[in-house]
Every structure is written in C-alpha cells, then in structure tokens.
Amino acid sequence: MACILLPCLATLLALALFLKLLLKFKNISSKPHPPGPPGWPLVGNIFDLGEVPHQTLHKLQARYGPVIRLKLGTINTIVVQSSEVAAELFKKHDLTFASRKVLDSMTALGYNRGSLAFAAYGEYWRKVRRICTVEFLVMKRLNESIPIRRRCVDGLVDRINSVVERSEDPIIELNSFLFLAAFNAVGNILLSEEVMRTKLDEKGEFFEAFLKFVECLGKPNVVDCFPFLKWLDPQGIRRNTGKYLERWIRFASGIVSDRIRERESGVGMKKNDFLDALLDEGEVNQDGPDKLSLKNITIVLLEMFLGGTETTGTTIEWGMAELLRHPSSMEKIQEEIDRVVGRTRRVEEDDLTQMPYLQATVKEILRLHPSVQMLLPRNSMEDTELMDYFVPKDTQLLVNAWAIHRDPTVWPDPLSFKPERFLDADVDFRGQHFHLIPFGSGRRSCVGVNLGHRMVGLTLASLLQVFDWKLAGGLEPEELDMREMVGLTLRRKVPLKVIPCLRE
C-alpha cells in the first residue's frame, strides 16, 4: 500500500506546488505596469530624457507619480523617485533586485566579473564585499588609517598654501587639488604609502590610466539601450575602456606581484593594508567561483580608487560652491572650528564629532548633490511587484536619489541650502533613512560610506580652518554657475575657480 501511496502523494505535492506558483505568477502579472510617457517607435523614451536625465525624470513625477516606466531602446526600465517607494524596494524587494544591469563598457576585459559594484549577485560578490566590510573598512581599520588621511589633507593644504605664497592673485581650480589629495589618501590606505609614492613618481601612469578609464565610463553608450549592437561597439567606448583598463591592470599587477614576492620571501614586515587583506583571502581559497585571481585583485583595487576619489572630490567641490554662495554658513563653520580647535593646531578627525554644524553641512551637501545622482542600475532577477505594479524579470531599475532628496513632502524648502535642517533631526545617510540615500541602501549600498564621510568632513574642516575663500573673476555669490554635468558622477558643468587667502 505504501508503495502505491508514496508516488501519489509526491505527485499531488508537486501539482499543488505548481498550482501555487502558477497562481502567484497570475496574481503578479495581472497587476498593471507602472505609468510612463508613451515613447517613440524603436527608440522608446531615449529622447525624452534630455541632457540631464535625473532632472527630466524628476519633472515627469508630477504627471506619472513616483514609479515611472520607460523603454530605453529595447531595455525595460522603471525609475523610483520617492522615499516611500525606496523604502518598499529596499525593505521588501532588495534580494529580487540584488543583480546589476551591467553597462557595456564595464564588460571590457571581463571587468564586471572581477568588480564588486557590477559583479553578478553570488559567491564572488559576497566574498569581496565581506573583505571590504568585515576585514578592512571596519571601524578598527578606519581608525588605524587616521594618520594617513591627516597627512594627505595636510599635503592638500600645503599645496594650496604654496600657490598662495607664490602669487598675489592665486586663482585655483579646486577640483584638481581635491582629486589628487583623495587619490593619494586612497592609494596610501589600499597599497601603503611607500609603494604608492614609488609607483606614482615613475611616470604617473597609474593616475593617467585611471583618469582616462573614468572618462570612458562616464560617456553615454548606445549599446546600453540596444544590446544587439554590442558586436559592433559603434562608439568604440568598450574598446577605449579596455585599452585604459589594460594599462591599469599591467601597472597594478606589477605592484601586486611585488607584494606577493615580498610575502613569499619574508622580506620586510607585512603591511596589513587592503592589498594584504585581498591576498590573504586569495591564498585561503584558490579555486572555485569566488576565486580572487591576480586580475580580479587589480580590478577590485581600481574600483576602490574609483569609489574613493571621484565621489569624494566631487562632493567637496559642490560643498565649497554652496558655502561660497552662502557665506553665513561658511562663517558658522569657521567659528565652530575656532571654538573647538582654535588655530594653533590642525583639525583632527576626533574633533569632527564636536562640530554639529559642520556635520549638518556635510549632510546637506550630500542631500543636494549626491555624487551618484541615479544609483547604479539594478536588475530584477524574477517577476515581482513594486507598489502594486507588475515588474517583469530582467527589468532595469533606477533609483533617482537626486529627486528623492528634493521631495517637498519630506523636505521643507527642498531646493534651498539649509544645514540647520539637520541640527535637530536624527537623519542618517547610511541607507536606513530612505529620504537620504546618497550612498544607496541594502545589499548593494556603497561599502566605502564611512571612509568617504570621514574624508569629506576632515577636508572641508581643514580648508576652512586655514583659508578664507572667495570666488574668482569678481563673481558675486548669486552669480556662481551651479549647473550639473552628467557623467560617472554628478560633476559641476563649470569647474569651481576660487581664491584662497590665509586666515589672519
């Protein structure tokens, strides 16, 4: 009897499971798609986005609501533009959207397979993220690297001061100074000061290859909307990305190989930096899908440079622009620094916790000028629903952080620069409060959020402690051009030119 009943029960169980899945699919797929503009034949909504897509999409919200459906060429896309929708997304559907929609340029030389930001959701991604969050970018490691950040910010101040001393009218383009300081800080933390200085002094090819790589990634690519053109690479973006990526890998591989030989021969003390953490993990597991190959290690290093320099420099530049437009806010920060630190010593990271107005200012900068205005694109791994809308599998998801940060239902007077709004508000920027998500949220949030925040705060405080600032060209604060330029990050369309003057 049992021999007869068991197969029958198994069949009934399988049938019940099938019917349950069928009903679930029917219930989900019967829901409406999100609303959105109709689009054009073949190209869809590509030409509806304009030159500054995040601003255009923000305007469309008034007509179509906080969840908008687009057709970008052949790519189904939905855009999230409110904190309410972001909360449902990251709380209920984070796993469903844990995959990435990989840009074509990111596939050059298999970059996406070694990347943390663009790797497929799986064993390799989990391993690299664990190294970043548990082995390296933890509070203990960040505290150990305080002297490195202090030296690099001191170097930034000294370089600006040397310009001031040499010229009666010292006009500087601030971003170039900020970028180099952030690059040096990240390089020292990842690879140790001695190694980084040696390699940079040779020919500066690390720096050059990095800048060209960033430039390629920021270019709009028609293949991202029409994947069937991938074989053609009509704009040559993937080819150029691969060219500069190959140069980076070649130089970084030299550094990694040197470190491996040092470890094997026992020459010198272990540096316990990020490279050592990657190599330690690579030695433990040398096979399998989560293998950290030499190439993958160089790609992870590049990505850490990318996240730690481009975003940091851009954020500080926007911050200085806002403070120059609002001199009273700059004066309040300088008064706070003088009260807490004085002028006989430089600001230290430990001092920042005693500067609530500076901390509020950093949050306001991140609100108005998130360095990544549209969080890196995600991809739905299965049919799902969001806010009672049907979202089919393999749909690209964009989160318009720029729009969320300007939501008038959440932020009073959202377009104004008002650090005071954060003085009595318990609002964090690490992804738990969904109306302020400059670093994303959930599984795919930025791993370097704490490092970036420390670097921004220390740099701003140091620049304002040592110098007074005014706009170049005799510009009045209200005349400063605040237009945005879309690329890999949200840069200023017109670089900020300023005149520093030593404070008396």
Can you give a write-up of this model?
The protein is α+β, with helices and mostly antiparallel strands and 504 residues long. It has a single domain (35-502), classed as Cytochrome P450 (Cytochrome p450). 52% of the residues lie in helices and 9% in strands. The chain is built from 18 helices and twelve strands. The strands form four sheets. A five-stranded mixed β-sheet has the order 1-2-8-5-3, with helices on one face. Strands 4-12-9 form a three-stranded antiparallel β-sheet. α7 packs parallel to α18 (449-466) and α8 crosses α9. The longest helix has 32 residues, at 294-325.
Layout: helices, strands, pairs:
Layout: H1 2-29, H2 53-64, E1 67-72, E2 75-80, H3 83-92, E3 99-100, H4 111-114, H5 123-136, H6 139-144, H7 146-166, E4 172-173, H8 174-191, H9 193-202, H10 205-217, H11 237-265, H12 274-284, H13 294-325, H14 327-340, H15 349-352, H16 356-368, E5 378-379, E6 384-386, E7 389-391, E8 396-399, H17 401-404, H18 449-466, E9 467-471, E10 484-486, E11 490-492, E12 497-502
Parallel strand pairs: 2-8
Antiparallel strand pairs: 1-2, 3-5, 4-12, 5-8, 6-7, 9-12, 10-11
